[in-house]
Amino acid sequence: MAKKIIILGSGESGVGAALLAKQKGFDVFVSDSSSLKEPYKKELDEAGIQWEEGGHSMDVILAADEVVKSPGIPEKVPVMKAIREKGISVISEIELAYRYKGDSKIVAITGSNGKTTTTTLIHHICITGGLDAALVGNVGFSFARQVAQSPKPYYIVEVSSFQLDDIKTFKPEIAVLTNITEDHLDRYDYKFENYIASKFRIIMNQDEHDYFIYSEDDEVTTQYLEKFKNHSNPLPISMRKETNGAFIKDGDMYVRTGEDFITMSVEDFFQKGKHNQYNTMAACLAAEKLDIRKDRIKEAVQTFQSLEHRMEPVITVRGVEFINDSKSTNVNSVWYALESMVKPTVLILGGVDKGNDYSILKDLVKQNVRAIVCMGTDNSKIYEGFADAGVPIVDTASAQEAVRASFELAQKGDVVLLSPACASFDLFKNYEDRGTQFKQAVRDL
């Protein structure tokens, strides 16, 4: 009799897992407490996979041999409590995909900030360098879907802490941890240590044949390194000192993992800003360990385009430049964005607060922010956080209102920056929807 696998959640991750499990001969059932999108319903139907929406059939779920939990589902919901009480094995979609990836190599990237940029840059270097690599995980298709429908010899996987929480054997040949800052604390009992431990799970199964790329300048990472380190080969990146990994010195990047090294000027990086220099060092180190030629790595770094919704220039309207950084869903992302601004800035903040502490932004706000425009259903924490910053704060309740208010507050030569520091689910479907509505509102000015 076929092993019974229940897929909880029907987004890209859940549907990808369902398709792979079905392909491998399991008895698969998809259950979602909300509604399934029509294209996913069609896919599941065509694959002969049973599904339900708007609730959970607990008798069916609790008869499972294994549950694949989508990353958005918290442990505290009743269905998860019941599954845990029954002692049923729970895994994430990346764990399922890992079991069937064959001989393929994995580069996995996690971190609080910069992981999407680093992931897509590594993928861009791989493609430029002639490797047949898939971009999967939190960007592109789910890892499981890619394994099921179009297997590749290389997978460049962006992984979140939620996905890492439910791995058992998942082991990347190259793991990248960009940095760790307070984020998603609502899912970790508001304990920073729990979130840190979750991020370090990326190296949990690595051995002496694998590599771990991390920022030696990130105090949280270095503070916990001894506690979580394993047998893999450490490759630190730094702007403060020379390392046996990658470092920046006098405006040049050096990637040095042995006798030989790659060097190029940071002026040649397509991606500007200090945070992108860290992302680029990590990506070049990973590429070097994949044996990609030096000239290809340099070419890729010089030609890499910025991502949609991540410091994405929209247009300039009557001397006011608009930038879409909707993917910025935590305070540290906003800090990086503001730190790279060279013009006076009108900052659009707000959404679903995740336990944000806005104090780290205060100095940058005082120095360079002309006004703050709130875009959320509850902006009280933003008002509290910047009450003494000496800048005007206004409320808006849509992308259109926020854009109009920002444009009125801005002066010629200013930047309007959407960098919300919050999740988007109060007014939008997701951060992409928020960014798309923002761009449309700017074009409608």
TrEMBL record:
Pfam families: Mur_ligase_C, Mur_ligase_M, MurD-like_N. Its main location: cytoplasm. It catalyses: UDP-N-acetyl-alpha-D-muramoyl-L-alanine + D-glutamate + ATP = UDP-N-acetyl-alpha-D-muramoyl-L-alanyl-D-glutamate + ADP + phosphate + H(+). GO terms for molecular function: UDP-N-acetylmuramoylalanine-D-glutamate ligase activity. ATP binds at G111, S112, N113, G114, K115, T116, T117. It is an enzyme of class 6 (ligase). Pathway: Cell wall biogenesis; peptidoglycan biosynthesis. Keywords: ATP-binding, Cell cycle, Cell division, Cell shape, Cell wall biogenesis/degradation, Cytoplasm, Ligase, Nucleotide-binding, Peptidoglycan synthesis. It is found in: Cytoplasm. Its EC number is 6.3.2.9. Residues 309-422 form the Mur ligase C-terminal domain. Residues 109-287 form the Mur ligase central domain. Cell wall formation. Catalyzes the addition of glutamate to the nucleotide precursor UDP-N-acetylmuramoyl-L-alanine (UMA). PANTHER family: UDP-N-ACETYLMURAMOYLALANINE--D-GLUTAMATE LIGASE. Belongs to the MurCDEF family. HAMAP family: MurD. This is UDP-N-acetylmuramoylalanine--D-glutamate ligase. It comes from Terrimonas rubra. The gene is murD.
